[in-house]
Amino acid sequence: MKKHGWSYLLIALSVLIGVVAYPYLPDQMPMHWNINGEVDEYWNKQYAVFFPPLLMIVLMALFIYMPRIDPKKENYKKFSSSYLIFITIMNAFFLLLQCVTIGYSLGLNIDISLAVNLGIGLLFIVLGNYLPRIKHNYFFGIRTPWTLANEKTWRKTHQLSGKLFVVAGLLLVAISFLPGVYKFTGMLVVILTTVLISTIASYVYFNRYKNVGNN
């Protein structure tokens, strides 16, 4: 439990923020924005306020449970610090989303698309720095049929993808300051391109290394 201390603190902070803000929030809160930055979906505040901490709790349970059922469970010990950092950063991201949503609902002049893009960009940069450290497993990382089938393919793919994710994160941060429709389109192009290149690379590496073992 102690090793997840920061994540538990972020979840507790999320609940506290929701409880404190709840009496001051409108009955209907914006929860989705279109590509032009306009609100196109509202939720009742009892759901909107406490959805982020609930999601954080569910994800925490999954992240804690996954290593226990993974056939490669012993490998998690080899990248445990990176795994914990990723969990913490994910919780921080959802806390950020909760805060900007509540702030917007309270009338603050917040550019939601800017905040979300910046958050995703920083998330990609952090993840990119830790991807090369992730060892072969079945639940966490770049999981394609080819990375799962061969440890050397896994390693090479994650080394490349780490660099790609950092570059993608920097691009997402830069794109955050573009006008609405360009921001949304740019984000999709960057993310899909990163995923596509990583997937293709895993196939290429697999065919290169499938007959040379996992060393």
UniProtKB/TrEMBL annotation:
Keyword Lipoprotein: no
Regions crossing the membrane: 7-25, 45-64, 84-106, 112-131, 164-182, 188-206
Keyword Transmembrane among record annotations: yes
InterPro entries found in the cross-reference section: DUF1648, SdpI, SdpI/YhfL
Domain named DUF1648: residues: 9-57
UniProt keyword list: Membrane, Transmembrane, Transmembrane helix
Any matching Pfam family: DUF1648
Full protein name: Membrane protein
